[in-house]
Specification:
Rossmann fold, 5 strands, alpha/beta, 5 helices, two-stranded parallel sheet
């Protein structure tokens, strides 16, 4: 992509490595550990589904002190498609061993919330401050 930009004369591979390496330095938003703790303490089984890698997600959650709250972390290599594709959410539900109506998807991104609601019929919560379930299951 970068090589197609007019005037670009840099090393595309080095730029890509720089960006990808930066993901390992990210932190979760400040309200995430408390939200995860509240969900876990309320009896929710927690799993994570990422468009990134399991290893990177585990490092991120471990750094935030919440990795032990999750039963499993999966990525899109299983369903072989990116979220918000419907198949990605079906895969996550199947991996958790539950039916869609027994699952609650918590997401910040509107596209992921819409993908879950339309793709699986599962319940959806918006993550912004406190995690509050949507009353009608729609984003």
């Amino acid at each position: 992509m970068l090589s197609g930009l007019e005037g670009w004369a840099g090393d595309g591979a080095a730029a890509a490595r720089h960006i990808l390496d930066g993901f390992a330095e990210l932190d979760v938003h400040p309200d995430v550990p408390d939200g995860i703790g509240r969900l876990s303490e309320s009896g929710y089984r927690l799993t994570a589904m990422t468009n990134g890698s399991v290893a990177l997600t585990e490092r991120l959650l471990d750094k935030a002190g919440v990795l032990d709250r999750f039963e499993a972390i999966s990525d899109v290599s299983g369903p072989r498609c990116w979220k918000p594709a419907r198949a990605a959410y079906w895969y996550a539900v199947e991996q958790a061993g539950v039916q869609p109506d027994q699952a609650l998807m918590v997401a910040v991104h509107l596209g992921h919330r819409r993908g879950t609601a339309s793709g699986t019929g599962g319940r959806v919560a918006a993550a912004r401050g406190l995690c509050v379930p949507a009353d009608d299951g729609a984003a």
